[in-house]
Amino acid sequence: MRMFRMMVAAWTGLLGLLSSGVAVRAEEKASRPNVVVILADDMGWGDVGWHGSEIKTPNLDRLAASGARLEQFYVQPVCSPTRAALMTGRYPMRHGLQVGVVRPWAQYGLPLEERTLPLGLKEAGYETAIVGKWHLGHFRPEYLPTRRGFDHQYGHYNGALDYNTHVRDGGHDWHRDDKENHDEGYSTHLIAREATRVIAEHDVARPLFLYVPFNAVHAPHQVPASYKEPYAALAEPRRTYAGMLAALDEAVGQIASAIEKKGIGSNTLVLFSSDNGGPNPGVVTSNGPLRGAKATLYEGGVRVAAFANWPGRIKAGSVVNAPLHIVDWYPTLLKLAGVTSAQNLPLDGRDAWPAITEGKPSPHDEILLNAAPGGGAIRVGDWKLIVTNSSGPGVLDDEAPKAARKNATRNEPVQLFHISDDPNEKTNLASKEPAKVAELRARYDALAAQAVPPKIAPITPGFKSPRVWGESE
């Protein structure tokens, strides 16, 4: 009998341990947040309410106020490089995507050996969806989103498409699950509608990763007239831009409402930023007091309005001044999902969670803002170095008219700024601080030496756009 009682006790203990393990695993699974990443396109730093804009952005303001504003959040100077950094946690100079964007006719894209963020999250059981703009290659099927880790795709592959016809350079560019799609409507409205559908139909037994990269507020500047009516006092093209941003803000509000209606708000992390600074500040966009614009390495080109929102996990009304970079979302989100970020390819991103939730310093010793044959920039602590070479391409953008690229003119070959004292980069300290220039230049050169040659795709003479981008004729 005693032996029987001992055996029962042993089995009871073992079952207790097993059930405890199951409970822990279930708790870990339940704690994995849903993640919604919203990316605006070409939005100026100063064009949100919390930065004093005359354009009304109530939904963005509300999410920023109930979460953490990321006031020194960096991206790349133009579109495709920022998206590559987000998807891989690696600086785009490692992909050859550090110069310009992936053009419609480009015979390349995000390299296939990269482990993308959605692929990593799928290891943790996430449902993954992209609704909006891809812009990381579509010349072969294996480069399309559904081959790169997304269970579901809706939207377009290129930038600068017509918001109403969904045509870029004569080719149709609207797709569902990487197949031709002809839904009619204004693209911002369609993206919002699909994003809310994904949320509403999501199986809550699995965590969700929803990536919503809007093409708004990128040119061409188009918006239904009703959105421009409150901004009659603004001159064109800023008036139309204001309407576009109002439509984008409305769409963000619809996504936030869908999250609440689904009952998953308490376990959903919402991240927002622009993909680069605003082009043509003062004419179209506003970067506030920040110097420069899209396609430059000044703060106005690479520092963007951003926030992180997770009720109960991120303190409402908090402001994070630690410098962060969009490469940081990759390891941060994988860690929150319980997935290792260890991989064969070196990561540049760092876990940003302690800085966002605990007020810790930046996880970076340095942030590389770009490294191209024409030059680049690096931030180390409060210091920022910009180097310019006349021998090669720097930052190019084929999506904007020439007038929007005039801000990318070359300046002094070496510029040093103390960002905490001079956030608007008015005073070049390079001649007064040669030792600091040498220190930052050594760090920059070490990283630049790891860059692969940039991929550039000049249009082939006689090139004809396909009927549908991304599909064989």
TrEMBL record:
Signal peptide: 1-25
Gene Ontology molecular function: any one: arylsulfatase activity
EC number: 3.1.6.1
PROSITE patterns to which the protein is assigned, alphabetical: SULFATASE_1, SULFATASE_2
Keywords: Calcium, Glycoprotein, Hydrolase, Metal-binding, Signal
CDD domains: 4-S
InterPro entries listed in its UniProt record: Alkaline_phosphatase_core_sf, ARSB, Sulfatase_CS, Sulfatase_N
Domain annotation Sulfatase N-terminal: ranges: 33-339
Family assignment from sequence similarity: Belongs to the sulfatase family.
Protein name stated in the entry: Arylsulfatase
UniProt source species: Paludisphaera borealis
Gene (name only): atsA_10
